[in-house]
Amino acid sequence: MKIVARLKRAGACACILSALIVAQNASALDVAGVKIDETAKVGNQDLKLNGAGIRYKVIFKVYTAALYLADKKTTVPDVLAAPGARRIELVMLRDVSSEDFSRAFMAGIQNNVDRTEKSKIINQLLKFGELFASIPELKKGDVLTTDWIPNVGTQIHFNGKPVSETLPDQVFYNALLKIWLGEKPADGKLKQALLGQAG
After folding, report:
1. Which segment of the chain is annotated as a signal peptide (predicted)?
2. What confidence score (pLDDT) does residue 162 get?
3. What is the pTM of this model?
4. Which of 4, 94, 132, 176 registers the highest number of CB atoms within 10 A of its CB?
């Protein structure tokens, strides 16, 4: 009887352990082999994954992108007006020179931000451009996170290390978001995926 009881307890423990493992695996989304967390902590705020997808250039996968917000939003105006912290996280899927990456970022801003907005954030754009000088190359697996923290500003990290001073204007952060969510996004399918609209 004792052996049977022990076997039952062992079986129950195994079931609980399996359930925990399944729950843990369910907390990450697989995008092109990259594990995308369903939640993120920015500042002191817990954020939820709004959407994630792949940035393609022609037929090549360049990076995965994940957008985190306090609450899920499905339209661009709602994302740009969302209160609280935000995060856009990129994980490289191929090697790209910092010059090419910087050029693509600046082109995305140029294509989606009007002259009036750009005039308000010109100094922050210059500082943003300079940060790539400290990164000679972005390699497969590298992670770039861009966080908006209310009453603090934009903080940018490369593989967990800060690569820029805090940039204070929310207009600047929204300009960055428009690279992927603007009227002329870097990748139309990625825009849909970030908004949680991918089929």
Report:
1. 1-28
2. 92
3. 0.84
4. 176
